[in-house]
């Protein structure tokens, strides 16, 4: 899966140049990990732009599309024949509940700047512990000292490494995920 950022993006933010080869590959791998973590927290892939086809099982003629943001609904087909549908943001409606194949295009063409920024922040805070040879996270440590150099965490390293604060994750879910909205169907 394509990462939200590349080593050059992180280098620009840190005013640091990563050497070509092994170091750049290592940073790119960490950025891919950060992007995967963010996708899991958001609950959506969001980038890169993709066209997908899947078999839908509408309920009361309604089918919520599984990925956002939706760019286009390209086709809705039942038994190899195109059927009429109505698109509304995030969903389609069709004439019945029989299974149909939906082809749609979704995702951002370029990674959203906010997701690039957060992926870089996650890797940056992970680099602190990695470069101090403490591992991927300092969870459980309140401080570490090597000669005259000392690192300290107010929260015992709880949010060191690839861990984003709950408030930031909630904001990202609202902005790029399906949000905190829950739809319930009622009769009558």
Explain the overall architecture:
This protein has 188 residues and is an alpha+beta fold. The protein folds into 2 domains: 106 residues, no CATH class; 57 residues, no CATH class. It is elongated, with a radius of gyration of 22 Å. The termini are far apart. Strands 1-7-3-4 form a 4-stranded antiparallel sheet, with no helix packed on it. A 3-stranded antiparallel sheet has the order 2-6-5, with no helix packed on it. Strands 8-9 form a two-stranded antiparallel ribbon.
Offer a quick outline of the entry.
The protein is built from four helices and nine strands, in the order ααβββββββαββα. The protein is of the alpha+beta class and 188 residues long.
- Give the N-terminus to C-terminus distance in angstroms: 44 Å
Whole-number total of structural domains: 2
Q: Briefly note the structural class of the backbone.
A: alpha+beta
The total beta strand count reads: 9
Question: What is the molecular shape?
Answer: elongated
Low confidence ranges:
none
Strand content: 15-25%
Strand order of the largest sheet: 1-7-3-4
The helix-strand sequence is HHEEEEEEEHEEH
Radius of gyration: 22 Å
Helix run count: 4
Largest sheet: 4 strands, antiparallel
Kindly state the percentage of residues in helix: 25-40%
In terms of topology, how is this protein built?
Layout: H1 7-14, H2 22-42, E1 50-56, E2 62-64, E3 70-78, E4 81-82, E5 86-88, E6 91-93, E7 100-106, H3 113-131, E8 143-146, E9 149-152, H4 166-176
Helix pairs in contact: 1-3, 2-3
Provide the descriptors you would attach to this structure in a database record:
9 strands, 4 helices, 3-stranded antiparallel beta sheet, 188 residues, elongated, 4-stranded antiparallel beta sheet
């Amino acid at each position: 899966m394509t990462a939200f950022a590349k080593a050059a993006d992180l280098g620009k933010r840190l005013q640091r140049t990563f050497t070509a080869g092994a170091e750049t590959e290592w940073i790119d791998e960490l950025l891919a990990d950060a992007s995967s973590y963010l996708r899991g927290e958001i609950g959506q892939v969001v980038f890169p732009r993709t066209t997908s086809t899947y078999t839908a099982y509408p309920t009361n003629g309604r089918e919520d599309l599984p990925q956002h943001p939706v760019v286009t609904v390209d086709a809705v087909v039942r038994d190899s024949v195109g059927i009429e549908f109505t698109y509304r943001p995030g969903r389609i409606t069709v004439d019945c509940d029989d299974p149909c194949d939906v082809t749609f295009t979704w995702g951002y063409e370029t990674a959203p700047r906010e997701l690039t920024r957060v992926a870089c922040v996650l890797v940056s805070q992970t680099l602190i512990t990695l470069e101090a040879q403490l591992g991927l996270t300092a969870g459980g440590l309140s401080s570490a000292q090597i000669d005259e150099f000392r690192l300290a965490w107010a929260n015992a390293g709880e949010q060191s490494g690839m861990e984003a604060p709950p408030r930031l994750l909630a904001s990202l879910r609202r902005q790029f995920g399906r949000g905190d909205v829950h739809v319930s169907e009622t009769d009558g």
